[in-house]
Every structure is written in structure tokens, then in C-alpha cells.
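Continuing the batch. This is chain 6 of the set; chains 1 through 5 are on the previous pages. Same settings as before, nothing changed between runs. Recording input and output for traceability.
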Amino acid sequence: MKRITRRQALMTAAAAPFVTARAQAANYPDRPIRVIIPYTAGGVAENIMRLLAVSMEQRLGQKLVLEAKPGAAGNIGTQEVARAAPDGYTLLVAATNNFAINQFVIRMPFDPVTALAPIAKAAEVPLVLFSNPEVPARTLREFLDYARANPGKANYGIPSLGTVNHLMMERLKQTSGVEITRVPFRGSPEATLALLKNDIQLFPIGLAAVGSHYKEGRLIALAVATERRVPMLPNVPTMAESGFPGFVASNWWGIAAPAGTPESVLDTLAQAVAEAQRTDAVKERFAVLGMLTPDQTRLQFAASIKAEADLWRETVQRGKITLE
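Output for chain 6:
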């Protein structure tokens, strides 16, 4: 009988975990999957995931168990996923700030860019610059000219500090050289009311939040921060058309796993998300909510997060922005 040397035994023992991991990945998933949402229950992220879950569960053959883990601007739930076992059984569904903003404005014990493995961009809400009709401007350029000529008379609202809405406006100020006073609110409804009263003159927000007011002519859409015009606002120019090429900003929600999750598992999950996004039920509901269905591969999504994080880091550093 052939003898096994001590070196061979050690090599076999060392390889065992990798063999086990490959076997587990090949059988993935064989039990329910936890999906952590780092916000209070009933929010946008949960609603998006519940829409996608119907199709995803059919494809994966397992239940998706949604858990709300709010706190610290979404960082508590995000960190729990970042520290979970990288086996595909603990996922995160979170918004832009938890992937590409918070690490630059809040002290955090981890960097989501390196601690998470992106799977898919689930949904996207392009930001639109809305203004009050009383402002003598009908284009973004006219608004900036008005603000430049009337110091102290142009205010912009944001739903809260540290959001993509906030950083978008800071970048616009940095790019244009025009000073517009920031007015933070405790949510979109308060900021919308202030815009309707002309207490603020500019508000970057998704169409769904103010759609009825816009349709009634009580608000004006100056520009949309997308690469191409969006179907729901075909007559509204993009930021690029308004003189700011490459200026793209949106609230989006992404799905991720802990870094180190096997590529085959990430691909399985990404395919399940893509299939769910193609269903009529999801497309119809997204249209009602003013959401776009992203068209990115898993690797494209990961690259876009890195690029966006670099952009917001520069914006934060240039503007000396901090939430502490």
C-alpha cells in the first residue's frame, strides 16, 4: 500500500476548505437567503426587493428572508453584511449612500467598496432639478444666471445631509462657480412644500416624489441628471445638454454580498435579479414609481460603484463636507 507522506497530508488538509467551498458553491443555494435592508421596515428598498423576490425565489428555489436593520444612516445593517460569511446566504439591499457616500462623510470601521461584492443595481431614480415657476428661469443655465445676478436669493433644498441629492448640488456649485444656499430638510415632503411656497428655488429629487405638482404646472423641471433623456420626461434636457457634460446623479438601490463570495454564487444571484427585472410586473411597477430598470452586468455595476465613490470623494474633499 502506498504511504502518504506528512507533506501530502498537510497539503490535503490545507486544500479541504477550498474543496468544501467549491462544493457548497456548486449546490448554491440549498437553504433560505437572508436579505438585510439597513433601513426601517416598509421603505423603498424593501418594496423594491419584495417586487424582485417573487421571480428570484422561483429561479433560485429558495426563500428570500427580508430583515430590516436600521441605524447610523444605514451603516449598521451594511456592516453586518460586510462581516458575514462570504457564502451567498447573507445579502444587502441598500441605496447609493451606503455604497459610495457614507464612507467619506462619516467615520466608519469599513469601506463598502472593498468590503462588499456588488451583485446588481436593482433600481434607479434619476434626479431632476425642479424649480418654482415664480423664479424667472426656464432652463438650468437661466437659473444659474439668475442666482449669480441675485446673491442670497437662490436657495436649494435637500431631503437630508449626506445624500446624493446633497452632493449633486455641491458638485453643481463647484462646477458652475455659482453660490446657492443649502437648506436641509427632514425629508422630501417638507422640501417639496418649501419649493411650492418658493421658500427654496431649487430641489433635486426623483419625479415620483413631486409628479402630481409637476403635471399641474406648479413646478418646472430644468434638467435631468442622466446620460440620455428619460421616457417619463422626454422634453426635459439632460445636464449634458444644459452645459454640464458627464454630470450624472441618481438615487439607486443595489444588491451586494460580503467580499470574497464565490464568483459562481454572485453570477447565480445576478442572473436571478436580471430575470426578475425583465418581468412585466416589475417593469410596470417601476414605471409607476418613476424608476428606471438598470441595464448593467455585475462587473459593470461594480465598476460604476468605484467610479461614483471616487467622484463623491472628490466632491466631499473639495467642499470640506462632513456630517460629524
